[in-house]
Write a structure and sequence with these properties.
alpha/beta; TIM Barrel; Double Stranded RNA Binding Domain; 3 domains; eight-stranded parallel barrel; 17 helices; 38% helix
Length: 557
Amino acid sequence: MQPHPITKYRPWGTIDLPDRQWPSKIIDRIPQWCSVDLRDGNQALPIPMGVKEKLELFELLCNIGFKQIEIGFPSAAQTEFDFARKLIDDKLVPDGVALQVLTQAREHLIKRSFESLQGAQKAILHLYNSTSPLQRRVTFGKSKEEIKNIAVEGVKLVKKYLSELSDTEVQLEYSPESFSDTEVEYSLEVCEAVMDAWEPTEQNPIILNLPATVELFTPNVHADQIEWFCRNMKERNKAIISLHTHNDRGTGTAATELGLLAGADRVEGTLFGNGERTGNLDIVTVALNMYAQGLHPELNFENLDQIREVYEQTTGMSVHDRHPYAGDLVFTAFSGSHQDAIKKGMDLREKQDDSENSHWQVPYLSIDPGDLGRSYEEIIRINSQSGKGGVAYVLSREFGLDLPKAMHPEVGNLINEKADSESRELPANEIYAIFKAEFLEKNKPLELISFDSGKEHGKEEVSCSAVIKLKGEQKEVNGRGNGPINAFVNGLEENGLKDFKLTDYRQHSIGGGSATESAAFVQLQTKVGRVAYGCGINSSIEKSGLLALVNAYNRTR
């Protein structure tokens, strides 16, 4: 890095728009969505997709609901041309889906592009040339007038070949490439010259795509550019203003959302942001941001894991664990306080009478993972940073055990010690195995061999007869009480074995129908102050309580 003062870089300028309107607006309408996965995304892959992979991804994009899909640059490569022809010749394009192809403003390339679209129902011819001062000076060595003429002549060539697609509904898209680095006044001058040459109508408007080909400044400046352009252009009603942001500064999503506030009508991007350098706009993120604000994007992401799987298989790319909405860990909480808050929020939602239509309010979760086909079971995972609430949540969600609140610290500390000692995350089945060994199967020094109970005719008391093994010695215990547990405790006391008091007892059912079991939780406190919980699970309510008591007894030894 250059030491201070920095002379190698300079701040970008601002747009003169003192009465900007976009900051006070909200996104309240859905833009037109255009996927550029098969062109812009594909050209950025280390190993570009073949026809097979492109067909699979094209089908996915159609199933998601895209009505505009840029399928490639057919004038640039035979594979791209063959792919376009296969889609059309094999009738693989659903009704209403427009195939978009990219071309430079050169006659032989435009002609070839028209050949690739023969027989298409709907097509968008995407014409572009670069307009920025840097490109004018370094790449082309041309003046502003010469660059504008390239665009205008390209449009005239498109009109010349329109008759070759007489049965196709054709729309023109023009991009002043590097719009982000072009003087807004000059961008508007070029785009209006293009409109004059094309003569769009309100019924068949031109698409003016204003790409942040390289993201150079903060999103608010991008929004100012878009608003300035929309407010100063003539015949705004005959143009669809389109956004195409990149993510060089890491703010492509913000730039797009502010661009929509500024008046744009259309968004180009890719699934999960695949694209040159740091990538294109991630349409999944922007669409689901809208959904989470109550505005349906009219794109279907109900099976987001499956969409991600197809994307990764066809492109060879991978979605980061922390990627918005789709990453493995985005609906996961490791922090104990987060876990506890999520558990409380989920529990409260389940108790609501009309949870499907009620407003989603769960701490730390801006969206219901179930809406994306993702499982609640993945929300909380356990490592050494996890808290007692998170462990209780896993045992409840995965195994149906609703632990008493006072029991949470005992169980949480035990699980966290295990995770900390091994410096790893513990899966749900391992958490349950630890719980089972410590709270369900603690059978020494006291073991319950058999138990019978019943009421004597005309009496309220319950009598019990039990066989126990204590420190390897088998004994018979008989007692009476107001219930099976009380009778058993009294029997232990008569044998001089009761050095505790029962301080808590809870019971609930697990499952339903004939498979229902009972889970019981018993807390004991010994004369010397030791306190511990035990758990018992059995098809018999009586037996589950007795097993819980025995396990608690053994945990106090």
